[in-house]
Amino acid sequence: MKEILVFDAELMGNYDRRAEEEYGISSLILMENAGGWVAKKILEMEDVFVVTVVAGPGNNGGDGIVVARHLQNHSLSVNLILLAAPEKLKGDAKKNFEIAQRSGLNIFVARTESEWDELLPFIERADVVVDAIFGTGLKREVKGIFARAIEDINLLAPRIVSVDIPSGVSSEDGSVMGLAVEADLTVTFEALKFGHIFPPGEGFCGDIEVVKIGIPLDAYEGEELPYRLTYPEGLFPAKLLRREPDSHKGDYGHVLVVAGSLGKTGAAALASMAALKAGAGLVTLAAPADVLSLIPIPPEIMIYPLPSSSGRINRKAIDLIEDMLQGKTVLAAGPGLGTWEETGDFLVELLRKASIPKILDADALNILAARGGEIPGHSLTVLTPHPGEFSRLTGKPKEENLRRRLEQAREYAIKHGVFLVLKGYRTVIATPDGTAYINSTGNPGMATGGSGDVLTGIIAGFLAQANEEEFEEALVEAVGYHGLAGDLAASELTQPYLTAGDIIEYLSEAFKENV
């Protein structure tokens, strides 16, 4: 599984300080390395002869000043526009400005919009404009001369390279602080930041290059590095792609899917078929007896009729739980289940008695939320809420959960000792030990009815084939393949045409991508 670390601004600041205090690497050297890397990436671009660097008053501006100096040393025509009075500069930014002055760099100062207007030709005539206005520390809305500069850079610059993060994008959650630079390339340092990967900020970054600026690897040892962005390359463990000649269906797990109710029969079929297509050896669907005839059950799926009333599982099903669980290795419950009180009683008892890994989705989560949020069972339990369901579980507004999705997902997983899959664009997989994986696959076309049911089935199918040591990796990969199958389907069918069934259909193509 390929993954890359993701930092928040506080964590990045801590490592900068550690490099200086514990390793004796001055912040001036780190700034020199950062600016040098950005310059190198610009020099690798084609047809770049004239560059304008727009620098703000902070350390991001200091990085930009270094970029300008390095590019001048490579005989490019470089102009530096400082959006602040030079006497306002501090620390390393001030030192680098003084070096730039002594090096003969063309420097212009724009403290007002009228001064900025006079310098617009330098934006229009540049082959590349470097955005070094704000870095990862931006906390408030962009206004005044800064807003005007960003607006004109977006309008007039032929190509834009942002230093660390496009100015105006919050590094903490990807929100746009009023307006933001629309970069063609963003060169960031040491690790991705949240603003690079969450919308709308990610849409402003263009291509992203992560470069190392000299912080020793030892500085990261022993520290909590909880956030990782996962990529589809090499997702599937080799053991799940290969099957021994003398193996049989029992070697690949038996998934029990408890799903379906009157009017929600499709969810049961989707989850069951997805589990089988994901590699489970056997799949049994347990559903209300009086709606089984309405469920489009593929012939490969076994059925277990449950006592029901008006298309919903009733309390009599409790007596069948132990028999139903016999021989099963994974339980997936919730898709289309309904939230009737008797169904809820059955579900709670089922979770108490099931000593196998569990995936809880949809109405299973709504039932638990309505009963105080207690999650019966052991730590090998996966919850797969969308933001609305997660809001019901946490009792917090959906907007807050979205804005702080990484933090909220980690807190919940740690507190309840479960694996949490918070669905959506950039689905977050949080583990009981506090690690949070951010999935990079998937597309808006997957925002369609049944997509979550398919995810539940794929997770169940993957976990059925994994042992306890492989549980976490198999879970992350299941989410990745769900998104990858959706991406492949969308590339062929277009996003608006995509359905949940197409995700199942293209799952084998996703597997082939990584064979």
Summed up:
This protein is an alpha/beta fold and 515 residues long.
Q: How would you characterize the overall build of this protein?
A:
- By secondary structure, the chain is an alpha/beta fold.
- Helix content is 40%, strand content 17%.
- It contains 20 helices and 21 strands.
- The longest helix has 23 residues, at 471-493.
- The radius of gyration is 27 Å and the shape is elongated.
- The chain starts with a strand and ends with a helix.
- The model has no long low-confidence stretch (mean pLDDT 93).
CATH architecture of the largest domain: 3-Layer(aba) Sandwich
**How many DSSP helices?**
20
Termini separation: 13 Å
CATH 4th-level superfamily of the largest domain = Ribokinase
CATH topology of the largest domain: UDP-N-acetylmuramoyl-L-alanine:D-glutamate ligase
How much is the radius of gyration in Å? 27 Å
Structural class: alpha/beta
What coarse outline follows from CA principal-axis ratios? elongated
Q: Please report which band the strand proportion falls in: under 5%, 5-15%, 15-25%, 25-35%, 35-45% or over 45%.
A: 15-25%
Which regions contain 5 or more consecutive residues with pLDDT less than 50? none
Q: Report the count of strand segments.
A: 21
Strand order, main sheet: write it out: 8-1-10-21-20-19-18-17-16-11-12-13
CATH class annotation of the largest domain:
Alpha Beta
Mean pLDDT: 93
